[in-house]
Amino acid sequence: MKISHIEHIGIAVENLEQAIPFYEKAFGLTCYAVEEVTDQKVRTAFFQVGQTKIELLESTDPEGPIGKFIAKKGQGIHHLAFAVDDVAGALKHAEEQGVTLIDKGPRKGAEGLNIAFLHPKSTFGVLTEFCAE
Ligand code: ZN
Predict the structure, then answer these.
(1) Is the pLDDT of residue 111 over 90?
(2) Which protein residues have their CB within 5 A of the ion that is ligand 1?
(3) pLDDT band at 110 (very low <50, low <70, confident <90, very high)
(4) What are the distances in angstroms from CA 97 to CA 30, 110, 118, 124?
(5) Mean pLDDT across 59-68
(6) Number of domain units in the chain
(7) Ligand 1: distance of its center to the CA of 11 in Å?
(8) Separation between Cα atoms, residue 94 and residue 116, nearest integer Å
(9) Which of 46, 65, 75, 127 has CB atoms 3.0–4.6 Å from 79's, for a disulfide?
């Protein structure tokens, strides 16, 4: 497997309508897309920072993954996403190294990317995502 860069950092927020203007005004960034990912029960907002994106995540359902995360831990950094050449290959490599997978194979995430998550219990507490175009 080969990681080229950090594709994005996911940040859980309670309210995109408050968080987007904050990122724009406090940091001078521009939100270039807002997208709902229904199977993840989130609305996402994207900002480009060099090669990396900031992905703000607002829950659309208290029972969804971001709703549960905020209820337990509050707002803050939710996950780290590595850009890889091949998600299936990266998952296979990670599994061979003893990493527990959340997703056994790639699925479609925001921006049409192929994504998969690794379990934070086996990655020193960091929910880790692989993604590829
Ligand atoms: Zn992500």
Answers:
(1) no
(2) 10, 81, 129
(3) confident
(4) 39, 27, 12, 14
(5) 96
(6) 1
(7) 9
(8) 11
(9) 127
Q: What is the pLDDT of residue 109?
A: 85
What residue numbers bound the domain in which 39 lies? 3-132
CATH number for position 68: 3.10.180.10
Q: What is the DSSP string of 27-92?
A: H---EEEEEEEGGGTEEEEEEEETTEEEEEEEESSTTSHHHHHHHHH-SEEEEEEEEES-HHHHHH
> For residue 39, what pLDDT is reported?
85
CA of 96 from ligand 1 middle (Å) equals 23
* Ligand 1 centroid, distance to 128 Cα (angstroms): 8
Q: How far is the CA of 55 from the centre of ligand 1 (A)?
A: 7
Q: Give yes or no for a contact between 91 and 101, defined as CB atoms under 8 angstroms apart.
A: yes
Identify the weakest region by mean pLDDT among 23-37, 52-66, 82-96, 104-118: 104-118
How far away, in angstroms, is 67 Cα from ligand 1 center?
15
The whole-number pLDDT of residue 78 equals 97
